[in-house]
Predict the structure.
Amino acid sequence: MSIHNVSVSDLHPNVWRRMEEKSASFRQGTVSWYIRISRLAVAVAVIKSKPSGGARQFAEALADRLRQQDEGWRSKAQGLHEDLLHVRQELLLTRLLFKTRSNTEPGQGQEIAKALSQDDPAAVNKGPCLPPTPPNSQNIPLQDRQWCQDHRMLKHMQFLQCLSGLRRVCELSLCRDGDVVWDSVVQLLDSVVEVFRQAHVGQPVHHPEQLHHATQTVAQTLSLGGTRHGCSVQHFSKVEDLLKEMISLLLTNQQFNAFSVHGVLLECLLALGGSCVLRTSFIQLLMSQTIQLAQQLWETCEKSGEELQHQMDWIRYQNSFYVFWLLEQLAQDTDCNVNQELVIHLETKALTLADEFPLFSLYMWRIGGLFRVGHQ
């Protein structure tokens, strides 16, 4: 029988098994070869992309790159959110203006325009003359970032002032559009806080009167309804966080321009405290910060004299008297409903500091007395 006429079935089983084993071994060898080549390629790519200095610098460079990408996405998302909010603001004003005009006589159009101009539009015009379009730059320098901050602040101020004018004429309920109003409030307040964040690292405060008008606009807008209708927990929590940050900036500022910054910051905080919606929460935040500082002072007092000098936060201690001044001003309004347990806690902490920090203790006791008397 010729070998050319032998079929696969005629082969001996052992021969067939050896052929299969050789074939499987060949396939495994091929796969193993590709895996080794792939690993080698990855290793070469890592080595080429690895900066000089070792694995630590490589990890830091990678983390920095990821952080820049994350900041870029955050900035892009913030820009899209601002654009969407601006469109919703225009739609709300258009709808309210249309309803207002349809419910008034033709001759009352001038009255509506007058009402829209009564909420101190000069506050918007007192700022710098900004160009009509934002600067075109990928790496935004400091002066262009200042332009963006001012532009953002002015846009939200204009919306809230126009809203106040329309609200006073037509007395429409804004409950269903409360998310737009509160979102605008959060954005405006955040732009104000951003100025103080920059001042905290030594940047000058430009146009302080504009910051004061912005916080007055926030307080006026929130006081229109007198309640938190249309406000979500998330929005109010953001406002509280911004208030807390402003208090923290007031307590920790130690720049050379601290005195002038404190003056502007106090005016802004006092304006926000004038809102019946924010007043109670704001007072309790101030009290909580004071109690927290008193606790830190008490813990410091238990240490030795040398440790006291090194661990004492004298900047926070000195700036705390600005907080006392704010509480004194806000205590003149007897309508706020402050948690009396917090007042008792304030007075109790005052007694423990009477020997080591008598002036601080006296101020704490006086503040507690003012709020206790106001609610008897």
In short: The chain has a mean pLDDT of 77. The longest helix spans residues 55-102. The chain is about 75% helix and 0% strand. The radius of gyration is 33 Å.
